[in-house]
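Bench notes, afternoon.
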Amino acid sequence: MDPVRNPYAPGAGQRPPELAGRDGELSAFDVVLERIAHGRPERSLVLTGLRGVGKTVLLNQLRSAAIGRGWGTGKIEARPEQSLRRPVSSALHMALRELRHPDQDSMDAVLGVVKAFALRESTEAKVRDRWQPGIDVPAARGRADSGDMEIDLVELLSDAAGLAADVGKGIALFIDEMQDVQTPDVSAICAACHELSQQGAPLIVVGAGLPHLPAVLSASKSYSERLFRYLRIDRLDRAAADRALLAPAEREEVTFDPDALDALYAAADGYPYFVQAYGKVTWDLAAASPITAADVAMAAPVAEAELAVGFFGSRYDRATPAEREYMHAMAELGGPHGAAVATSDVAVSLGRKPASLSPARDSLIKKGLVYSAERGQIAFTVPHFGRYLLDHLD
């Protein structure tokens, strides 16, 4: 098979050639956009799921849908050590430019608020960390510059939404890795979404994050479970996984034997990233169309070796020896499918007191390697990570 024509695209946030199995989520977002266009109140959205299920891809597709309707959009990727002031300011600046409001004075007034919000840094910020947004208007005074993130974000987004309402459009702010937003900023986002929903303002937040994101939001504001619409993004079912492989191949006049599709689904387990990874290697090693189960059998070890280095190994390498010990214990307790395990069981397995393991567990959570599935439970954020660890026990 010609590797130049290989249609499969495993990559972080990279859109696959066929976005299969997400029609329900795309349709639901179309309804949100349509309702807001007609002045109907609508909740912001939150996508949750493990790594490799395509949350970022879907987030980008939702953004494209909003752009297609003439909305202003901006996207940020949250980082644990970073305040949202700078990224939100940049994203909102982009969204306002996309709106193309005909009244420059009105636009400048809101841009001045964006600049004031951006420049209101913490008094502890170092000189080298000071930042000047690329906005050629004076910063507003007395608006979004109090230093209280909750107050400032409500004022900022309210003003931006008013500008969008003037032109009969909306604004969508997309936040990837939302579980990494700092606690005060999570509270501010919830408060702003609450205020905007009460106003019926045409501005929504669309977040994506790991499975514990709803708990992060709920811990910040008790009403968050009613504030957002939560969409769980999971593995592809068999029909969708087959479509993800067959549709791009058939555009290249290539097809798969049914047995090959069986083998690929068993290997990838329906996870979109793995579907692309196994599909790409199988294509490269197959001699001709149709691709057979024998081709998959030859390709599987190669694909697994690549995943062991790039997908699993790169994450494992970030862990300290104590954190690796903790994860190995999780893998032995949870088995190859990576089931959630009790933190107390991990402590028993390691012959330690639970309190002594808290630093390792908390650090793994901050690094995005594990998450608290529910109180007293812990699980891997990466599918098949338990299997990888069991195969690579020190």
